[in-house]
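Hi everyone, sorry if this is the wrong subforum. Our group has a chain we'd like a structural model of before ordering constructs, and none of us has done structure prediction before. Sequence below.
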Amino acid sequence: MRLLLINPNTTASMTEKAAVAARAVASPGTEIIAATSQMGPASIEGYYDGAIAVPGMLRELKERQAGGYDAAIICCFDDTGLEAARMFCDVPVVGLCESAVATAGFLAQRFSVVTTLERSRILIDNLVRRYGMGSRAKVRASDIPVLELEDSSSGAIGKLRAEIERALAEDGAEAIVLGCAGMTDLARELQSIYGVPVVDGVAAAVKQAEALVSLGLSTSKRSSYASPLPKSFSGAMQDFVPTRLLA
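Answer:
Right subforum, don't worry. Here is the predicted structure as tokens:
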């Protein structure tokens, strides 16, 4: 089984961190193919960054098709471009947020998602509600710019731990979801410290993708995720003229 792990931002060190986490939980025989977008923002913090990141992510999906992959993982907790990718592909496509909150729902009645900035908190809170977990989850921001997670001297880990402690004390959280792909390397340590399940979206998405492939299931192409209709695209978007991606 070949899983394509796409980082929709352009920071290669974050891709590698996520790839390490993905390979640590992948089943024997599962190959993780890590890809970094070659166009777009260095990090994704809010709706604008996410919109600008989508074309680069879609280009990676297209350009990696020659090597083949059985499922794709969009490696951003904002589930950047997830709906578009599901229309674009004929294989399963999963996102970190949807995978993580579904996994947390198996483990706890109440859980808190701890993310980076307030602008991301609002976006993720909307996603959590859309995924049907709004009554069971609270989303918190820890005031950490995403790229500070790459800098061990930034104090980001202390801010993250402080917000987790507030979630446990104030929210009645029975589990914690880490709301950024850049936090993926911290899950095991934090689980050991706090004694509750700590769900990492990268790991959760790998296992969800493996399950779908193993079950022989893929995205429905009826209505919502039907392949894009052929039409002309203008200007810089000419490279994105819809074509059927995978046979």
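For your construct planning: The first strand starts at residue 2 and ends at 7. The first helix runs from residue 12 to 25.
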